[in-house]
Structure formats: structure tokens, C-alpha cells
Amino acid sequence: MSGMQRFVSLTSFALCLGLTSLACGAASDLTKAPIEEATSLDDHETSEPASSGLFFDLDGIEEIEILTPTEGVGLKPLFEWRPVTGATNYLLVLQDALEQTYWTWRGSSTSIYLGGVATAPPEDAAGPVLQTDMTWAVVALDAGDNVIASSRLRSISP
After folding, report:
1. Mean pLDDT over residues 32-57, rounded?
2. pTM for the complete prediction?
């Protein structure tokens, strides 16, 4: 994902990632959430590079502190971050080496295992696995689905 992209809503954020729907998880119950028409600044891009270094670059939002190690996390890692005041939901995005979205999750928890479960799954459990180096980020959403905080894009490897 380029540092040149800016978003003003969860909807435009998802559309800029190329998602037509978001896989959302609550424990092991994965569902699909519809995406509505996007509203954006300058068609999702600006002529200036992102200045904050955050995954979701929008002036005035705070940075989310990621707690997950970058290496040695196994095939079904626990993604974990510090809570954000005012956040009702979080959106996690896991990208492959080509910056393509591999897996997304949305929920109210500040930790989730790959695959969308709250407890450690067996390494051979069905679902997505971290077989190679990838990157991930999380954004915090308020009750109106407005982005109020973002992490930086962070590397993760099994």
C-alpha cells in the first residue's frame, strides 16, 4: 500500500484496498459486511506523500501501539494492540508481499488470532495461515465508523 493514499471513511478505506466486502469476525463466526459507495479526498490520493507514517493517513488521528512481535509468531499468530479511547470497533488488514489484502477482520476486541478466533487455534486448523513474511495494520473506528486512530504498517513473520 502506497504512502500516497488518504481516506476519509471506513468505506473509502475498504474500496481503496480493493475490497468489495469485508470479512468480519466475532470469535469463530465469520460474516460479510457490505461496502457502500465511497467518499474520499482527491479520489483516494494526494499529490503529497503521507507525513505521519501511519497506515491510514489522516490529519489528527492518533497512533495505535501494536504489541505483537514481528518474528517467530507461528502460522496462526495473535494480533494484539493497545485499546483506543472512543473506539467501538477495529479493522485489521493483513497483506502479502505484493501488498495485496490477504485477510481482514473487524471486531471490538484488541486481540484476535489469524482466522478470527479469540483463543489459540491449532497450527493445522482450517483457515488462513501465515506461511511467509507479511505486513499488517489496524485502524480504530468510533460508533459512526469514522477512523479515529491507526497503526503503522508492521512486518510479521512465522
Report:
1. 46
2. 0.71
pLDDT tens-digit series, residues 61-109: 999 999 999 999 999 999 999 999 999 999 999 999 999 999 999 999 9
Q: Residue 51 class from Cβ within 10 Å (0-12 exposed, 13-18 middle, 19+ buried)?
A: exposed
Residue type, 78: L
Q: With pLDDT > 90 as the criterion, what percentage of the chain qualifies? A: 61
Q: Which amino acid would we find at residue 113?
A: Y
In the chain, the DSSP E strands lie at: 21-26, 29-34, 62-63, 78-80, 89-95, 101-107, 111-113, 134-141, 147-150, 154-156
d(CA 1, CA 16): 9
pLDDT tens by residue, 106-139: 999 999 999 999 999 998 899 999 999 999 999 9
Residue ranges of domains in the chain, CATH in brackets = 10-156 (2.60.40.10)
At 10, give phi and psi (nearest 5°): -60, -40
Cβ neighbours around 31 below 10 Å, total: 12
